[in-house]
Write a structure and sequence with these properties.
The structure is a homotetramer. By secondary structure, chain A is mainly alpha-helical. The first copy, chain A, folds into two domains: about 70 residues, Arc Repressor Mutant, subunit A (Orthogonal Bundle), CATH 1.10.10; about 140 residues, Orthogonal Bundle (Tetracycline Repressor, domain 2). The first copy, chain A, contains ten helices and no strands. In chain A, helix 1 crosses helix 4 and helix 4 packs parallel to helix 8. The radius of gyration of chain A is 20 Å and the shape is elongated. Chains in contact: A-B, C-D. The structure holds a DNA duplex.
DNA sequence: GATGAATGAGGATTCATTCAT
DNA sequence: CATGAATGAATCCTCATTCAT
């Protein structure tokens, strides 16, 4: 009979002293370790012992908090997602300024809050493991992709409504915003990690360039006449 | 010591008689089966026996052609790549017409020849397994990504040279072409395979939309006269 | 994915409860079991599972202590040898009495401490597997055969020096002492184990007879004039 | 249903031309190859494919002549033994000269006809595999060891009867003759094959030395008049 | 007869999971 | 709670044996 599972806020700043072994932080450390390793090696190729070792506990302890490797995996995905989207949505609810600025801000913020953090690994993880965990894939689709799409569509629609963007199929245009985001997440955790430093892609510049091209393509060009 | 088959019905005539002999065809069938399964489940989660079964042979036969599961994996990647890029390059060497048409053609052809075929799985495979097979990742980077980049940059540069496109950093712009391509490959083999049919993304339309947006963003505007 | 034990009686309390924990004792028990089986059946024909079963543990446990079957084999040989020779050498350093008595004692003691114990199996093992494990053979040659030879030569030389033995090539004479020892070790673990009890060779008597014949052959016979 | 097995004289000098594939020589070549490999690596560690390859035929062909690996093994042992002992016995039936000379001749001839040839490998093979093949061990015991013992005992008894040797337990004395012979066979195919050339034991000299020591030990001393 | 492709039982090894301490 | 020794199902791989050609 597995003990009750943790449930805690994802952005917890860990205020405690670092010296003593703090029990309540365990699940978080395990999730961090698991995320890193699952992203790096995939679910099947990651050994629970490695996860435990990286979290500084023994194998047995891991099973105290997670009933199985699979449950650990699900927790990793759920945990990294919970609540993020909602907070984000609210932020854009009250955005002031023109829509191109809004889109630029949206892309920039995505990079800063997701792309540049370990949360981006979840994207790679889902791409790699979706077929092996269809329920998780559905969950991810519902909790992350759909809301993200809705948010993007809303922004795009706002631009159209305000006469800033030409009319468009916002559904497909939203995918156009999503594509570079996902590409960057994937790249960073796959080939990007295997390429010599000199040839690296600068993500901030890539995001910026990509955003400008897209904006340039979508804007009505009143100013041009 | 000798394996006692059908212990209880020793004179059974074994109706299947599957022992066909097709040495030349085998490696190809195995590679196909392996590609499909590696793409679907990942390297570690795929059992060699499944690969063999899907290719219609026994476990032992697989090892007749590939020294190990890892060698099979490498062969899958190498085999799906060899020569493709070169032929493609040559095709564009002699392209006639304006550069936007060239880019549209390039994207369309990529979808038809790679994206829509099982070859697209290699992309997902590399994204998922690059960290576990760094040598393969380097090989893929060198043999596929680099040449693809070079080709795209050449096309973009042609547009700039001919006054069709505004000046740009062709390196980053090439990534902008790459992103939707990779996104589509990934999507198709991951979340896309887990989503109910109604919500599917139409790849041809996505490619077309994306291409137009990009072109719109890059073109110098003749109407701006 | 998790192994579903007792599918039909899930609440079975499993009365055996063998999960004892004796980390220190395990390697020794495994080495004993491995020695016995390797001697009896040879390295290749012995299954690790048999070794584990004879040591009263499961297959997995064996690999907790020995990285591979081969490492187990090496450990068996090394462990059975370490230190034996040195202690023996020292014993003869301080021997008092005439050399024929010394030789008789040497042979008798070899039988008691090696020949009659499971350590004699190592000799058979090395004879059988030397070609498959050249490094181990070299180790055995250096750590056992050479020192044994040196000890025997020293004893023989003492006899010659004290006028008890006729001058001789001590190197070859040492092999004459070695031959019956090895013969006995081999015999005991091979044909001797397959022969009906009535025809058994009495090892003590054989050693004694052989020693007397050798001594008789080597002694100068002052008393005979 | 296995085809009838071969049966041919062991010392066949192979008179045919070497060029054409001579069918009737096949079993012999396979037995030679099998003997060499079984002696070197042991039964379990030798692969039938290696045996076939060394004999210059395919794996399938081997099974045309021998129903199984085990049958091949038995044939190797039987074949190398058949008839040898009888011919030898007859030779000593008519020996003229004193018994010490007879023993010296016996040992020398053993080395030349067995010890120095590949037949000596059988001894090592039996020592290594006796426990795994008890029927073969019994066969070997009956066909080789017993007759050898009888022959040696007869020679020793002749010496005692003629007043050349002191009275003795001929049974144990016969083992004293056997021990160096078996030692040499074993040594040659095991540790002896793993030792640098400089440290080699000269078999002829070893046999001679050993014989003289034994004779010296057994002879009644005429000088004791 | 000879071949060698195909087979699949068997064995080494790994690793998620359990549980006594 | 935490540990890590123990377990054994699962998996890769080998190789004796079969059999269509």
């Amino acid at each position: 009979m597995p003990p009750a599972r943790h449930e805690f806020s994802p952005a917890l700043p860990e205020p405690q002293a670092k010296r003593e072994r703090r029990k309540e932080a365990r699940p978080g450390e395990l999730l961090d370790a698991a995320l890193a390793l699952f992203v790096e090696k995939g679910f099947a190729a990651t050994r629970v012992e490695e996860v435990a070792a990286r979290a500084g506990v023994s194998k047995g302890t891991l099973f105290l908090y997670f009933a199985s490797k699979e449950e650990l995996f699900k927790a990793v995905v759920r945990e990294s997602i919970a609540g993020r989207i909602k907070a984000w949505n609210e932020e854009f609810e009250v955005f002031e300024g023109d829509t191109p600025a809004m889109l630029r801000y949206c892309m920039k913020v995505w990079w800063e809050r997701v792309g540049a953090t370990k949360a981006s690994g979840i994207t790679k993880l889902m791409m790699s493991e979706a077929r092996n965990f269809p329920e998780l894939a559905a969950f991810y689709q519902q909790e992350v992709v759909q809301p993200g799409q809705v948010l993007l569509r809303r922004i795009l629609q706002r631009g159209v409504d305000r006469g800033e963007f030409a009319p468009m199929d916002t559904n497909y245009a939203a995918y156009s915003m999503l594509a570079p985001i996902m590409f960057l997440s994937l790249w960073k955790h796959s080939l990007g990690a295997c390429v010599p430093d000199g040839q690296q892609l600068d993500p901030v510049k890539f995001i910026a360039t990509q955003t400008e091209i897209l904006l340039h393509g979508m804007c009505v060009r009143q100013e041009k006449k």
